[in-house]
Design goal:
- Helix content is about 35%, strand content about 25%.
- The chain has 3 domains: about 1-100 and about 200-220, Periplasmic binding protein-like II (D-Maltodextrin-Binding Protein, domain 2); about 105-185, D-Maltodextrin-Binding Protein, domain 2, CATH 3.40.190.10; about 220-310, Porphobilinogen deaminase, C-terminal domain (Double Stranded RNA Binding Domain), CATH 3.30.160.
- Helix 9 (about 220-235) packs across helix 10.
- It has about 300 residues and is an alpha/beta fold.
- Helix 1 (about 15-30) links the parallel strand 1 (about 5-10) and strand 2 (about 35-40).
Amino acid sequence: MKKTVKIGTRASLLAVTQSTWVKNQIESQYPDTTVELVKITTRGDKILDVPLAKVGGKGLFVKEIEDALAAGRVDLAVHSMKDVPSDLPEGLQVAVIPPRETPFDAFICNGETTLDELPAGARIGTSSLRRKAQLAALRPDLVIEDLRGNLDTRLRKLDEGQYDAIILAGAGLNRLGLQQRIASLFTPEQMLPAIGQGSLGIELRIADDELLAGMQFLHDPKTAITVAAERAFLLRLEGGCQVPIGAHAVLNDDTVTLTGLIAAVDGTRILREQQSAPMKQAVKLGRSLAETLLDRGGRAILDQVYQETRP
C-alpha cells in the first residue's frame, strides 16, 4: 500500500462520512499509510434550484471527482453507487465494493404517521422521478413536491414544516447515525430502490495495480454480484439516476433474483418484472430483464420521460 493515499469525495456530510469510513479502514489495515480526504464540488452540488431530472446529463455527482482521479490529483474516489453512471470513463474502474447497507427507501415524517395515514393533500418531498412515480401509484391523492439539497438540508426542510413527509435512502440515514428519524422502510413490493442504492463504490485507475491489490480487503463479492446485475439492467436501458427506473437484486446461494421497474413519471403506468439466473450470469440477467421490460412497453415510456424532462 502507498504511504499516502488521497481520497476524492463530495463535500456533503454524508459523502465525507462515507469517505472517512474508508479512510479509517485503510489506516487500520495499513498503520504506516496516511489517508487524506480531498473535497470536490460536483455539478450536482452546485445546481440546487432545478429538479435533478431537468439538469440533464449523467454523472452529476461524480464527474469532477473522476476528472481529478484521471488527472492523478487523487488516488481513489468513494461514491454512492446509485450516483455512478453505468458507463465509466476510459482508464477508470469501480473494482472495490464494500458490503451493502440497506438498499431501501425510508419514509420520514414529524410524528408517528405512516404513508398510509397521511391525509389526502399532504405534501411529500423527493427529488427522484423513480420515487415520485412509485409514490403516485401508491398514493395518487398526495402532493409530491421537489426536494433538493444534501441529506441534512432535506431533514431541516422537513423540520421547518415545508413538507409533511420526505423520502430518503435508508442507507444514508443509517451511516449518519440517524436511524431514529426513519418512521419506516419501504418494502421492495412498495418501492423498488435505485440501482446500486445502499452500496459504496471505490473507483481507481485501471493502471494502479498496487492500490487495487491493497484495497481488496474492503471488497464484498456478494454485494458486487447483486450490484453488477442491477447496473447491467441500467446500462441496457441507457438510464441515469434521474430516470424512473428501479431495480433490486438478491443473492441466495448461487442464484441471483433481479426485480426491475420502468415507470411513467405520473405513476399511471408501471412495468415490473422479475427474473433469476446463476450468479455467474448476473450481467446477462440484468440485460435480459431490461430487454423484457423494453419489449413490454418500457421503450415508449422512457421515450416519453426523456421528452418531458429534456432541459
